[in-house]
Amino acid sequence: MKETAAKERYRDALEAKIEELSRFQAELEASRNQYALLYDFAPVGYFTFDRNGVIRKVNLTGARLLGLDRTHLAGERFESFVVGEDRFVFVNYISCVFKNQGKMTCRLGLTQRDRLPLYVRIEAMVAESGDECLAVLVDITEKKLAERALSESEYNLAKAQSMTHVGSWSFDPVTGSIKASDELLRILRLAREATNQESFAAAVHPEDRDKVFGQLRLCIEQAKSYEIEHRLKFADGSGKWVYSIVEPLLNGAGKVMQVYGTTQDISERKQAEVELSNKTNELQAIFDSISDGITVYDHDGRVQHHNQISPALFPGKIHPGKRCQDVFHTDLKEPGACPVERALAGERVETSFLSMREGKETLYLDITATPIKDTIGDNTRALVFMRDVSEKRLQEMHLIQAEKMSSIGVLATGIAHEINNPLASVAGCAEGLLRRFNDTPGLSEDPRLDAFQTYLQVIVRESYRCKGIIDNLLSFGRKSDGLAVNVDLNTMLREIIELISHQPSFRGVRLTTSLQEGLPCVHGDPSALRQVCMNLLINAHQAIPGEGGAVEVATCGPSAGMISVVIGDNGCGIPAENLDRIWDPFFTTKEAGKGIGLGLALSYSIVKRHHGEIQVKSRVGEGTQFTVLLPVSTK
To answer: Distances in Å between the alpha carbon of 46 and those of 52, 123, 135, 136, 227?
Structure first.
């Protein structure tokens, strides 16, 4: 009985134990299923790797990250799913995990078939067995792409700031801290560690410092945006111009919490403005220095711009706002002939204009009016050139007179040639009579013929003297054949002096010569060189008022391959303001009828044609000296 009761108690206890074990097993199975569920569907990938990086286990999330079913992943090398540039990183990472036996982290890019790259962060540590490691993969693709986008944005911003020379900055008025972009530090020539108020203040030009920081204080106190241009000055003495736009950031109470600004390097623009201003001034100076009158009319025919000459041509009629009718319509006889109106209509006009001015000489103008199209082409302006040709008209009359004098000169040369032959006959006859007188002794004893021999000698001497003068005149007036030959300057000067010394107007002037003997020849046109020396000698004589003056002619050389002819006088001299104009055609200070202003211009042209130089020195009241330099002949 007792034995049976004991067996029943044992059986009951055993059944209770079995029931408890079954309950524990069911709980364990439920816990295991829950763990498996958590393992498979965790938001991160779980991997088990061996020492070679071969996948032993992987959860569903890990398989999804690799884009394959996990039944195909066991035994695969994980590095085959890593992007090429990161494979070495993974191999080295696994080696370090097993070597260090600690938790380590790295970031990799994974390749997925027909999908964009995936970026993950791996955290791994060695298991207790030491033959495998447990790894967690976290998808950081969005973060990586955001970081990349931020990096690209920051790069693009920095690049844009660098290209536009614009730096950005912010200032905390409470803490006084400053944040600045790299471009701003480059503009200010500051290092990153020097981002403070003192360094920023030191970069501002001392003369602009009060203005710059005064504006900043007003911005903080009054919460107002502003713009400012100012200078920077650096330790090496160089500087820059910058342009800043500053805006405050307010809190709900309207208090300035932060000040943001952009600063642009405008040194190039400032330099361009200076150059443009200089160019504008230069063009205006050129505009004003042109000796012609220049006027620009707008599309309504009103004066827009003009140079300094235009108002002088038409006093009171040319200034901004005046109409073309005030200038051209009063003297025009034909309607529609106004050059400005024709130019505004698109026609280029070249015409002459005659203005009868009360109490003044008649004004002769050559007018050129040109249309100016604007960029769009809607409106046309007119550019009008007005050249005063009144003096030219007078010079044309002088040229007509010169042509008459030239004709007279040709006639005189012909007459001189005709006189030369009779003079030769007279001289020959006188020489024959003189020889007969000398050959007949009885004639010299006749008292009635005492002066006969003397008279004959005077006739011969004066006849040959006249003949010599005529020969020199014919030589000077002979037309040049254009051929260059060797010319003896001393001989040529003696001929010219002999020719002009018999002129009555030159007899009151003392002429001295200093001609160097043995002077080499020059190669040139003898007729042209004779004209140069004649012009200079005539000018020298005419520069001496009255009698008692002196003219000196000298030759010397060679020096530096040049022979010099110096012709000087002690006459009235040339004013300094006229020295640069004496070579201009038709410029003369002589009285009417004594010259037309072509002698020196022609002389200058002839000397230059002979590869020589002509120089002048003069002082008013002391005289003038012309020096002609001609190259020595090499032939």
So the answer is: 17, 10, 6, 5, 59
